[in-house]
Amino acid sequence: MIFANIEYLFLLLLLIPYIIWYIMKRKRIEPTMQVSTARMYMKTPQSWRVWLLHAPFILRIVTFVMIVLVLARPQTTDNWQNTEIEGIDIMLAVDVSTSMLSEDLKPNRIEAAKQVAAEFVNGRPNDNIGLTIFAGEAFTQCPLTVDHNVLLNLFQSVGCEMVQRGMIEDGTALGMGLANAVSRLKDSKAKSKVVIILTDGVNNRGDISPLTAAEIAKQFGIRVYTIGVGTNGTAPYPMPTYGGVQYVQIPVEIDEQTMSQIAGITNGNYFRATSNSRLKDVYREIDKLEKTKLNVKEFSKREEAYEIYAVIAFICILLEVILRNTVLKKIP
Known about the structure:
The protein has 11 helices and 12 strands. By secondary structure, the chain is an alpha/beta fold.
């Protein structure tokens, strides 16, 4: 802790003459009574009020000290700290096309994917993790970071509404999504670099084919885990109509051959997630990867810390007023 106005601490020197003045004053005004002998009063018990006589003086000193500390503005110090941790660099690439609203996973595919991915992020505190989202086009939602609170906050805003509102084109640009994630990992110095790409469709958009993107990932030593989300056959899809939401059965079409090829080219694995629990299999596999050391610079922000001293000063003033008007009240 530091003080922004440390010169105010010199005011504490005023306590020395005040304490001396108090002691001398008490000697002058000490009541006396002349008696032949004081032996009869030796065993007389002292009232508890006697012990409180000096309480206002002590409270006044504490109050003065607290006020001086408030004026000196105590602050928590800024702190840069370099730490070395072990982890891997991971980019999550999540499909946000409208078909991800299908409810063969609960509550639907996109929410199930977000929930399991969030659990994975919470379980990997030492990893650099980023997020790419894609539909008919792809972009980075969050670059690689060890600040997982920021990542999770951005993850919560991910949804198919972005496509429904026309913010990005609908469709499945699988190659673009993978290429975007690779671009975030290509300069990484980590020994283990991973892309987890999750989709429920077939590549039908974008200027880069999925296999070309996989070859690029291989050149940079990036391992790709592919997840095909969706049950077998058909899945219930909420179709908005003038009369409300109507559920229709849509076919589940996942290009498993391409997904397997992507994983094979990059020495990864392909998973078919037909349920929420199945989604966790890919994360168990990632836990087996080799970890690498990362240098992290942490910064703690300076904040004002005077509140506790102000509260103590207020309490001391209040106690002194109460004592002087109750048990220590003087009657003329």
